[in-house]
Design a protein that fits this description.
The chain is mainly α. The chain has helices at residues 11-18, 22-31, 48-68; strands at 38-40, 43-45. Strand 1 and strand 2 form a beta hairpin.
Length: 69
């Protein structure tokens, strides 16, 4: 199902969607300095571009990790 343009996601939703552990998503957001597009109270909200960047960064980490073995 196509995603709406103005749909925002929390880090928990991103982790669930990407089927990755929450701590890894949080790590990428923090270390790669991926900024939320807005906040709902204290909750950081990310757009589709951020989700794609987070996924790409996680994939890059996995590739590096697997190439070392």
């Amino acid at each position: 199902m196509p995603r709406k343009k103005n749909e925002f996601h929390t880090v928990g939703q991103i982790a669930e969607r990407l089927r990755r552990p929450l701590h890894r998503v949080l790590y990428v957001v923090r270390e790669r300095r991926i900024e939320p597009v807005c906040r709902a109270g204290q909750t950081r909200m990310f757009d589709e571009n951020a989700v794609k960047r987070i996924e790409a960064e996680l994939d890059r980490i996995d590739q590096r990790k697997n190439s070392v073995r």
